Amino acid sequence: MTSTTGPAQPSASDASDEFAGFAERLSATTLLRFATAGSVDDGKSTLVGRLLHDSKSVLTDQLEAVEHASRSRGQDAPDLALLTDGLRAEREQGITIDVAYRYFATPRRRFILADTPGHVQYTRNMVTGASTAELAVVLVDARNGVVEQTRRHAAVAALLRVPHVVLAVNKMDLAGYAEPVFAAIAEEFTAYAASLGVREITAIPISALAGDNVVEPSAHMDWYGGPTVLEHLETVPVSSDLASSPARFPVQYVIRPQTAEHPDYRGYAGQIASGVLRVGEAVTVLPSGRTSTIEGIDALGESVDIAWAPQSVTVRLADDIDISRGDLIAPSTGAPATTRDVTATVCHVADAPLVVGQRVLLKHTTRTVKAIVKDIPSRLTLDDLSQHPDPGKLVANDIGRVRVRTAEPLALDAYADSRGTGSFLLIDPADGTTLSAGMAGDAFTEGAAGTAAAAAMASDDEGWDF
User: Fold this and answer.
1) Secondary structure (3-state) at 190
2) 110 forms bridges with which residues in the sheet?
3) Cα separations (Å) of 404 from 90, 438, 460?
4) Is 79 exposed, middle or buried (0-12, 13-18, 19+ CB in 10 A)?
5) Rounded to 5 degrees, what are φ and ψ at 135?
6) Assign residue 441 a region: left if phi > 0, alpha if psi is -120 to 50, beta otherwise?
7) Residue 48 has pLDDT above 70, yes or no
8) Are 345 and 450 in contact (CB under 8 A)?
9) Distance between CA atoms of residues 290 and 321, nearest Å
10) Which pLDDT does position 146 carry in this prediction?
């Protein structure tokens, strides 16, 4: 492959050495997962394209394809939004429909970028893109300011506990690069996001089309002395608390080779969701509550004494315990409590509504259990963050509180404590459609309706004796 910059192609041996050195340098850098969001035509895809283009992360053939597509549409300059809008419908309509992932790197950091749709119809896709993000870039058109969809995206970022939020006030070139315009939007958004509990908000005035303050500082906004978008992405602290959180190991698969070489081998394979596992540590298997000791840990075909999130390993226990997919192994000193009554905030993503009394499947880590929606205490009103009590149902893109009763106990953490083991999905048992994405525990606001509903738990509905 040929990049947009760089010397002529080296020999095979030199290329191999260069690749090895490049891989070594990449492994020494940190990884940042971030997502972009904003209303329709705020310029998300153009920002992503500008970021990739100006950081020299676009290959020559990719750029040529974009230039050809732009010319065929009668455009003189390359439409950098086409670097991410790959679906035919996206290019025809000029909007982003699905989440587009892009991987790129600079000498300072590696990035996984999720370009999420801005249309209200596809807000559900932002939940997908931001669910694992450590930073969210929310775009605002300088001419329109903060709109309802901006508030919705800020609310989703707050619900998903995205640690860092960047407000990118785009199209400053169409607002005359005026500082008062930027200041007013930044003040309004910051106040709103702070009320949601967003801890860190950075506002940057940009023009994605012209490249102002995306990778290079703008010559038109000397009144702004902060970082460019790329500079902030490269320097923002990356959360590393996975290993410092209590250990959680959802079992994905039980390994029993029963071969002549390993006649008695019994291992439990999976990915460590959080924390650190150590050989000799006392653990509890949930939901059964049985205890044992970690006898061994196998990683990449070798035995190790310690493993940490997010490594994929096989754990061997000292005792033969009935363990299967969906069970959770945790240190006995910090094991989560099990429950069959789940109170959570959900983002409803399906076209069909979620209603009280509905039968669902609840998928938590590797465990899937039958459940029923017992109550929908409130729905969030994004305009003023008030709780609309007893809505009866949630429709597509609604954010609301629900109470779910499961047929079997779950070892569920609060989402505020662990994004991995505090989240779950509600699934339609008829066709496997994802209905809602849930975050267990308290949301960013506490409404009287939600408190009252939690305090007055109704008895089981007739015929639903879980």
Assistant:
1) helix
2) 31, 105
3) 37, 11, 11
4) buried
5) -150, 140
6) left
7) yes
8) no
9) 8
10) 94
Which of the two residues, 262 and 15, has the higher pLDDT score?
Answer: 262
Alpha carbon 54 to chain centroid distance?
A: 26
Ranges 23-32, 180-189, 420-429: which has the least confidence = 23-32
Q: Quick check: 133 and 35 in contact, CB under 8 A? A: yes
Contact 206, 47 (CB under 8 A): yes
Residue 248 CA to its chain's centroid (Å): 19
What pLDDT does 13 receive? 47
List CB contacts of 210: < 8 A, sequence separation 6 or more: 173
- Average pLDDT over the chain reads 82
**For the residues 239-245, what does the mean pLDDT come to?**
65
Q: What is the DSSP string of 196-240?
A: HT--EEEEEE-BTTTTBTTTB--SS-TT--S--HHHHHHHSPPP-
Strand ranges (DSSP E) for 300-337?
Answer: 302-304, 306-308, 312-317, 328-331
**């490249």: which residue's tokens?**
211
Give residue-wise pLDDT tens across range 337-375: 999 999 999 989 898 999 999 999 999 999 999 999 999
Calculate mean pLDDT across residues 119-138.
80
Q: Would you call 242 helix, strand, or coil by DSSP?
A: coil
Confidence of residue 94 (pLDDT cuts 50, 70, 90): very low
Residues 6+ apart with CB under 8 A from 391: 376, 378, 379, 398, 400
**Whether residue 173 has pLDDT greater than 60:** yes
- Type of residue at 361: L
H or E stretch including 111?
Answer: strand 109-115
Cα(458)–Cα(338) distance, integer angstroms: 20
